[in-house]
Write a structure and sequence with these properties.
This protein has 207 residues and is mainly alpha-helical. The protein has one domain: Up-down Bundle (Alpha-lytic protease prodomain-like). Helix content is 81%, strand content 0%. It contains 6 helices and no strands. α1 runs antiparallel to α2 (46-69), α1 packs antiparallel against α4 (113-140) and α4 (113-140) runs antiparallel to α5. The radius of gyration is 18 Å and the shape is globular.
Length: 207
């Protein structure tokens, strides 16, 4: 019998909870891409632009986990995770050029209150979602959900980093804090790319 044959057993309920957490993550990031695009254009912020692109990548990560929890073939997990890995490579390269250029040229972003509000709210939501995924992933023994939960946790850390950069620029005029926050995202994206592109990243699914 398939592990998904009985949707009323505890594991079935946990999988539905995991899917619900991913749907919330996916929905939040879809809205976030739109909001951050507008804020990045309005403020010319390297950090907000990078965080917006990261939100786009997070959408793909959530889709991969939803596939896994609803019974997709393991090969689709590997393909999806490798695509996300290459997306992180492109994100790191693009933001590295943007952040270095901003620092070299003394580019000054225009800090917006909207950017402060959105990144603060996103940090709270991402930390809460990460905690939920960790609990459900451990109870299910699902490494894919646990891995994506760590990505969500780092997303909350990134939101906090971007928030700090905007606040420092807004309150103290530290213009360099914005591109430095962008470099934090570069380091994160590079790390995620290395992790996701390792040959044995996705464990075999024997069910």
């Amino acid at each position: 019998m398939s592990r998904r044959a009985n949707s009323d057993d505890p594991a079935g309920r946990l999988r539905r909870t995991g899917v619900a957490l991913e749907v919330v993550t996916l929905s939040w990031n879809v809205v976030g891409v739109v909001v951050l695009a507008g804020l990045a254009v309005g403020s010319a912020s390297v950090a907000l632009l990078g965080f917006g692109i990261d939100s786009l990548i997070e959408i793909g990560a959530s889709v991969v986990v939803i596939w896994e929890l609803t019974g997709s073939h393991p090969a689709r997990q590997r393909i999806g995770l490798r695509l996300i890995g290459w997306a992180f490579v492109l994100l790191a390269g693009y933001l590295l050029v943007q952040a270095v250029a901003a620092l070299a040229l003394g580019h000054r972003a225009t800090p917006l209150v909207g950017g402060i509000g959105w990144t603060a709210l996103t940090a709270v939501v991402m930390f809460a979602l990460a905690a939920g995924k960790r609990i459900v992933g451990r109870r299910l023994g699902d490494p894919v959900l646990l891995t994506e939960g760590r990505v969500t946790l780092v997303d909350g850390v990134l939101a906090t980093s971007v928030l700090l950069g905007i606040v420092l620029d807004y309150a103290l005029g530290w213009w360099w804090a914005d591109p430095v926050a962008g470099l934090v995202i570069v380091a994160y994206a590079a790390r995620e790319a290395v992790q996701l592109l390792r040959p044995s990243q996705v464990p075999p699914n024997n069910t």
